[in-house]
Structure formats: structure tokens, C-alpha cells
Amino acid sequence: MKIKDIQVYVNCPDRNFVTVRIETDNGLYGLGDATLNGRELAVVAYLVEHIKPCLIGKDAHQIEDIWQYLYKGAYWRRGPITITAISGIDMALWDLKGKAAGLPVYQLLGGKSRTKMKVYGHANGNTIAETLDNLGKLIGQGYEAVRLQCAIPGLSSTYGILKGEKDYFELQRNRPLPPEQAWDTNKYLNFIPELFRQARSKYGEEIELLHDVHSRLSPIEAGRLGKALEPYHLLFLEDAVTAENQANYRLLRQTTVTPLAVGETFNSIWDAKELIETQSIDYLRAAATHAGGITAMRRMADFAALYKVRTAPHGPPDISPIGHAAHAHLNSWAPNFGIQEFVGFGGAQMTAVFRHPLRFEEGYLHLNDSPGLGVDFVVEEAEKYPYKRSYLPVSRLGDGTLWDW
Ligand code: EZ4
Ligand code: CO
Description:
single chain, alpha/beta, Enolase-like, domain 1, TIM Barrel, 3-stranded antiparallel beta sheet, 15 helices, globular, binds (2S,3R,4R)-2,3,4,5-tetrahydroxy-N-oxo-pentanamide, binds cobalt (II) ion
């Protein structure tokens, strides 16, 4: 099964996605997700200019060797652009191996550890009342776990809150340059515990609740929040602090028993090594699209399991259905799977471009038994939606200081 051609598509069905399509000489093709939100074309160039010429003629079954070849062979290891490109190739090769074997990828990983995957949805709002109404709607749809984000009173904008925009992508795309958002740590810390107090008093203890800090706090500030949220029993607090310095989490861990999750921006097992070894976190949020594909995610899951750390892959709308399918196969297999973030299957344009193997029912995702990853990519549909440049927001303090977004 030799690699005959590699095509890289960048399209905007509702939002931008980079799709890798590898064709083999036995008439099969495999699909991978290489979407890096806000920096898409850098990955496209890496794939087309630097990776493609190296892989034509290679045996597509040699997934591990190709992964090592692209990782070690670059000399410049790691980094989001390199690893997102490798991730797209790796997923496409697993898809191909599954199709060649006539088996879904989870079977190649060792079979199913569970019949369905628990997800958490998002309830957002401009006020606590609106956030709690949205939480009630998700509970009504069968969700057993929900992330709560609410606009901070006195701030012009807050992460996760869309105001008048249709979705996150509209928020980014309607501006020629990165949108600017405001941040105030004191206002935030004084407000968030009240959101969770009211959520528990309205809906009780049964529903599992989560929150994403989006890396805005110092370890001690995060400790104050974690402690204040302890009475409301979160499933986890996400990205309480940045993890470039993994010791941040060792410090935070000493302050609170609120479970901690981090990892959506990780592109290597090395980003998580100390966090896991020191048992400073409870959930690893690495994504197949940004952390090295299925090959790397499997390795991370096994390593995390040794330390009672569970997987909770990032599931935002800026990972394509191919990336979400990769997670579904990993989640079906991983003995230490925790929970999957899930924000729906996207709009009409997306569902016309990507045919995916997932079904949502009563708070869980179900994966069908199609060979490979089980996703199809309809090129003629995709080509109706050309790439549109967009940026993630940046955030600033009131005095103009650039902050973590
Ligand atoms: O900000 O995917 O948990 N989810 C998140 C996401 C990320 C976006 C960045 O592209 O934090 O909303
Ligand atoms: Co997040």
C-alpha cells in the first residue's frame, strides 16, 4: 500500500478546516485533520512544501516509522505547526490502515473498553439567569455534564460568551485583525463562585459541572478559585493557569482538591510529563489534531494511566469532524478515558462537507463500525467554501497590558 498522492484542502464550511487526504496505489484514501485555528496556512505550507515530497512512494502501513521520520527527521522538534502537520498525516494513515483491514480504528487500538462515550456540553450566558436557563436546556437533552461560562459583570467581553455573534468563528471573522477582549482578575474571582452556587441551588448535585478559566490566573489566584469552588464539586476546573511551566500545577495542587484539567494546546507528551508524573492534574485535554495524531495520543493515554490521570480530549468547533472521529476511536479504546467535550456537529455547510460516524444520544456519543475513522470528506462541497482568514481574540487589562487569552 504505497502512498501515491497527498492532497491538502483548506476550506471554510461555516469555519476554517485543513484536511489531509492521502491516496494509495491500491485505490484507497485516508483522511486527517490538520486544522490550527488562526494559523491554518502555515500548516498547509508545511504539509505541501515539506512533508508531501518525503512521503510519496512510502508504505502507508508504516505509521510508526513515518511518525518518527517526520518528528526526528525535522530536527526542529515539536511546536504547534510541525505537530499539527504530523497529526494530519498520522490520522490519515490510521484511517487507511483501518480501511485496508476492513476494521474501525478502535479495533486496531485493542478494541472497545466501553459501548458509548460520556460528553460534556457548554452552557454560556450573558447573565447567571441566562447561563442557568441554558444549563436547564442541556439537562433536558440528557447531558450529564456541562461546562458553565458566564459574562463577567463590568467587563465588555468574556471568553466563551458570544453576545450577538452566531458562533466563535463569526466573532473572529467579522474583524480584519484579532478581536480584543477585556480582562480583570478581581472581577472574575469575585463573580464565578456565585455562578456555581446558584447552579447547585437550582439543579442539585446530580449534574456534573465544569469550568474553563482559559489560563488567565496565577497559581495562587487559581488556588483561591479552586478552594472557593470546592463546595460545588466540579468534575474539573480547566486551564486554571498556563502550563508552559509545569511546576505551576504543583503549586496549585497544594491549595485545592478541585480536580484539575489542562492540555488543549499541548503538542507533545513532553508538555505533560511532569504534570502527570507529579500527579498534579486529573484530566489530560490533549487533542489528536494538535498533539501528534492517534500514535501520540495512544502513548500519552497509556502514560497517564500509570498515574491515575484520565483523558478528556479537547472538543471545540475548530477541530474538524475527522479530529473528533479520531477522539471517538481513542475514547472507545482508552481504559482511562474520562469525558469528551462536545459542542454539537456544526451547521448545514459542515455536515454537507464532512460525513461523520457519530451519533449523540442522552449525554453520550455513539460510534458506528465503519472501517478506518469512518469520516467522508466531500471535495466538491468543500470547494464551495474558500478559506477566510480569521484570528483568535487577544485579551488586555484595563490599562492596555496584553494578557493570556
Ligand atoms: O479556546 O478551541 O475548551 N475549549 C476551549 C476552546 C479554545 C479554542 C481555540 O481555538 O478552550 O474554546
Ligand atoms: Co479550553
